[in-house]
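Subject: Sanity check before I submit

Could someone independently write out the structure tokens for this chain? I want to compare against mine line by line before I put it in a report. The sequence has 117 residues.
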Amino acid sequence: MMEMLIISSEQQMRLIMLFSRNLAKQSDKALIKDLGAHPVTSSAYPAFKAATDLRVERITLPVGDDKNAALEGGDFLYRYLAKGYICLGEHKGDPKPNLAAWGVRSIRKLPKVGFGL
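---
Independent answer below. Compare away.
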């Protein structure tokens, strides 16, 4: 099983994405408590980790079908980016979410912070 996790803060309008085959075994509370174990290269990450309103959303991605997994991940991510959220850091992990189904051809990079629409 492959899982894409989005941990977000509504107050900060920020999120991080995690891809994993083994994080599914951790509870949401444990994931949030262990954010320091995930290296995110963003100047906004320290403030994000300290947010009191962090929440976790999970999507199970199909294993072995990278095209559909990328589209499903893109649908999931687009819901946040369309609301104005900024994804912290650079994208790491596979499959890379595909936003093409929503007409997104490029993302706006914010140096040392992350990306958004």
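---
OP: Matches mine. For the report I'm noting this point. Helices lie at 28-33, 45-49, 66-81.
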